[in-house]
UniProtKB/TrEMBL annotation:
Protein name: Endonuclease/exonuclease/phosphatase domain-containing protein
Organism per entry: Populus tomentosa (Chinese white poplar)
InterPro entries for the chain: Endo/exonuclease/phosphatase
Start and end residues of each Endonuclease/exonuclease/phosphatase domain: 4-222
GO MF term set: catalytic activity
Source taxon at top rank: Eukaryota
Signal peptide: none
């Protein structure tokens, strides 16, 4: 899974077109969201200047004057889209990730600055989320912060952050930790974390190696975001403990065994971090090889029941 999201603050310049094209090529992108394009009319010729690939399809929200605009692009041989939904501030792609075979939704977001418009956006996305209860990934510029540390000034809009948090909670979405830096928007001495990525727990289970990277800013106020299951050279993969693991029979016995093996591999009182790293690695392997198969087996049983009932 490789998804790129970038608020370009205007796509018209040839330099920005080349910059996007280069990132798509370097990172072998499967789905790309270009935000704040400021383009009124999107054409095939423009798309092929961005992504010169005959397998590429696209959808867009055209700009209103010199404001807004979104373009979603995808390689149909890697992510086969069956349905495209879109509204003010978002484009949703629903289809099959060809490498994994999983059906999922990938939603690109470019939130407006207006508080009332953002509330409407959260409401519409929440309706969308519950209408498509499948594996879910959402990435983009949310134009809102969640904590004081998300702005270098320390300013927090209480009502705005509360509405944003309530939206995420109601949709049961989990935020990805950002590798490569903290802030994603820069202007003079001001810095903010406005660009983010979220997924549901099912997506985390099936794409357990996925990370969120902040790429160099280059030609925009915003840094590009890369959702990728391939480690970059400077990438550190943070460990995520999933609550659903606790429902697995004898999970406490399993993790106790991993800890015992870690103590055996790294004996001594002052190797605590090495033991924790060992346990984390074992849990990742167990999640992929054993626990992850529970979803597959469930689908097999459901399919068998459906065959019997029909």
């Amino acid at each position: 899974m490789k998804v790129l999201s970038w608020n370009l603050c205007g796509l018209g310049r040839a330099g920005k077109l080349r910059a996007v094209s280069r990132l798509i090529d370097i990172h072998n992108i499967e789905v790309c969201f270009l935000l704040e394009t400021k383009i009124k009319t999107c054409t095939d010729s423009l798309i092929f200047r961005v992504w010169n690939n005959s397998n590429v399809n696209w959808a867009c929200n055209e700009a209103e004057g010199s404001r807004g605009g979104m373009i979603a692009l995808w390689d149909d041989t890697k992510f086969q889209v069956s349905s495209v939904e879109y509204g003010y501030g978002w484009i949703g792609l629903y289809g099959q990730h060809m490498q994994s075979g999983f059906i999922c939704a990938i939603v690109g977001v470019y939130a407006p600055c207006s508080m009332s418009e953002k509330r409407n956006l959260w409401k519409n996305l929440c309706i969308l989320r519950h209408a498509f209860p499948i594996l879910w990934l959402m990435v983009g510029d949310f134009n809102e912060t969640l904590n004081q540390i998300d702005r270098s000034s320390g300013y927090l809009h209480i009502k705005g952050s509360s509405a944003f948090r309530n939206f995420l909670d109601s949709c049961h979405l989990i935020e990805y930790q950002l590798a490569g830096g903290y802030f994603t928007w820069f202007r003079n001495c001001l810095m903010s974390k406005l660009d983010r990525a979220f997924s549901d727990e099912s997506f985390l289970l099936q794409f357990s190696n996925v990370m969120l990277h902040r790429l160099p800013r280059e030609m925009s106020d915003h840094c590009p975001l890369l959702v990728s299951d391939s480690l970059l050279e400077s990438g550190y993969r943070p460990f995520k403990f999933l609550d659903c693991w606790l429902q697995f029979p004898n999970f406490k016995i399993i993790i106790r065994g991993f800890w015992f093996d870690g103590c055996t591999a790294f004996p001594g009182r002052f190797r605590f971090l090495k033991k924790l790293s060992f346990v984390a690695a074992q849990l990742r392997r167990w999640n992929k090889d054993d626990f992850g198969d529970q979803e597959y087996m469930l689908q097999v049983v459901i399919s068998q029941i459906d065959d019997l009932e029909s």
